[in-house]
Amino acid sequence: xxxxxxxxxxxAFSYQSNSGFKGFVDGAAKESDQARGPSPMELIxxxxxGCTSYDVVGILQKxxxxxxxxRTELQAxxxxxxxxxxxxxxxxxxxEGRNLKEKQVARAVELSxxxxxxxxxxxxxxxxxxxxxxxxxxxx
Length: 140
Hints:
Layout: E1 3-9, E2 12-17, E3 22-26, H1 40-62, E4 66-78, E5 86-98, H2 102-116, H3 118-125, E6 129-138
Parallel strand pairs: 5-6
Antiparallel strand pairs: 1-2, 2-3, 4-5
C-alpha cells in the first residue's frame, strides 16, 4: 500500500491514496474555516470507524441478518501533552434492521474488535483503550 502527499500551503497537504482517491488533510482543520480537509488525527479516527463498521456490517450480512443501516459514532480522548496521541476511543454502533438478533450484533462487534479490525488492533497495541457498545433500531 502506498500514498502520496504534496504540500498545498500553510498546514494543508493534498493526498492521493493507493486506490487513486484524492483529497486534503489539513492541520488547521480546527483553527480555520479555510481548512481544506480534516486533520490527520480526524482521518485516523474516521479510518478506525470505517474499518470496524465494514467488519460489523459484513459479519451481520454473513449471519443473514437483515441490516438496512449502520451508523457508527466515535468519541476520542487525546493526551494533553505532545505528542497528543489518542488515549481512549469509544465506538457506539447504531444498527438498524429487521428482526436483528442482539446476540448476533454483539458477536459482530466483538469479532471486529478482537479479530478483524486492523486499525483497532493496531491502535490498541499502541496503548489506546478502545471500548464499544451498540444499540439496535427495528425498522419496518
